[in-house]
Amino acid sequence: MTRIPPDTSAEEPDGGNLQVRLRRGPGSGDRPRLLDKQTRARQILQSLIQGLDPVTGEELPRETVLQQADVLRALLAGLSALEQTAARALRRSQLPDNVGQAWTTEEESRLITSFKKGASPVAIAHEHGRTLRAIEARLEKLGLITAEQRMTRGGFTGVS
């Protein structure tokens, strides 16, 4: 049986054993457990693609259904989907807490006050749990800075 080596182009920096630790927030209690299950599912798929029993590590019989091209392609597609999900979760876990949240009137007032007191957009971004791009976009929308004054590219319309 010819073994297919695992695709290293999409591997995580730790060699494929991604253990994402997400920040806790509303509804995030099951995410780490879900990611552990996804990690195990990826390990199982990788073993099957290589022609190995995922429990014992022994080579599977040559006549197994896993030798069929369509089955291998399906396993590879499943593995790719799980890897994309894990990569997306990792990226999301590294974003500030308030990414994607609507601006409240109170938060906008605090933004204006901080900016007028001379706080840097980077410091304001940390204070508000938002990205620098979001802070600059809001400041531009409020007329406090121009597009040319931004450190990030694009206007508040989201154009890159």
Would you summarize the structure shown here?
This protein is mostly helical. It has five helices and no strands.
Low-confidence stretches: 1-28, 155-160
Biggest β-sheet description: none
Q: End-to-end distance, in Å?
A: 49 Å
Q: Count every helix, treating DSSP H or I runs of 4 or more residues as helices.
A: 5
**Coarse structural class:** mainly alpha
Net shape: rod-shaped
Mean pLDDT: 79
- Helices and strands, in N-to-C order? HHHHH
Proportion of residues in β-strands: under 5%
Number of DSSP-assigned strands = 0
Q: Compute the number of structural domains.
A: 2
Whole-angstrom Rg: 23 Å
Helix content: 40-55%
Describe the structure.
The chain is mainly alpha-helical. The protein has two domains: 1-94, no CATH class; 96-160, no CATH class. It has helices at residues 31-49, 69-93, 105-116, 121-128, 132-141. Mean pLDDT is 79; it is low at 1-28 and 155-160.
Task: Outline the fold blueprint.
Elements: H1 31-49, H2 69-93, H3 105-116, H4 121-128, H5 132-141
List the defining traits of the structure above.
160 residues, mainly alpha, 2 domains, 5 helices, disordered N terminus, disordered C terminus
